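User: Sequence in, structure out. Go.
Assistant: Echoing your sequence, followed by the structure tokens.
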Amino acid sequence: MLPKYKRILLKLSGESLMGDKSFGMDPVILDQYARDIKEIVDLGVQVAIVIGGGNIYRGMNEAETGIERAHGDYMGMLATVINGMAMQAMLEKVGVYTRLQSAIKMEQIAEPYIRRRAIRHVEKGRVVIFGAGTGNPYFTTDTAGSLRAIEIEADVILKGTRVDGIYTADPEKDPKAKKYETITFQECISKNLRVMDMTAFTLCMENNLPIIVFDMNTTGNLRKVVCGERVGTLVKS
């Protein structure tokens, strides 16, 4: 099948890399993700990735830890670079050319984020992994994903989660929860469905950038999504 989307931004949570572990990364999950990404790169899809850092460090309550919010957010940014390096290693192991770009300068391990360079990399078929969020505290990796997707002119954001779409309620808690096949940005807001944090979501809505929420942990789902099959939930204007 021919891909429906030419250029995508794949947003992965740090927690998804844990698999069944309670901390860190599961090499089995990393390998599966790398092979699934290689499959769509081989179809000619241009791929950029943003990964969260919650499997290593999650911003904690300042009152409990004594670590101020901004300081903790920078710690979280470093965690996303570690995840980006792991994903880069696995992708190159399966034969995919990659570039890791960081919003915080660390020349020994990553290029600085430069928009034009990132676009050139994906045009050449390299997978670009964006690390360190936006480089600013108080912004999530969801916001970084939305921002980078808009900057590189991606056709869609693919938000890979452990759940196969957006539901009326949490399907892990409510067995009667129903899945949406398609939903608008305004419906998500009015029904208080937390697809992304509001800053990220608003960026997508204002720039008419569709989001597809799908189960990344099922092998082959990523290829189905980029080829236009009905997988997950599509959020659009």
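User: And one key feature?
Assistant: The mean pLDDT is 95.
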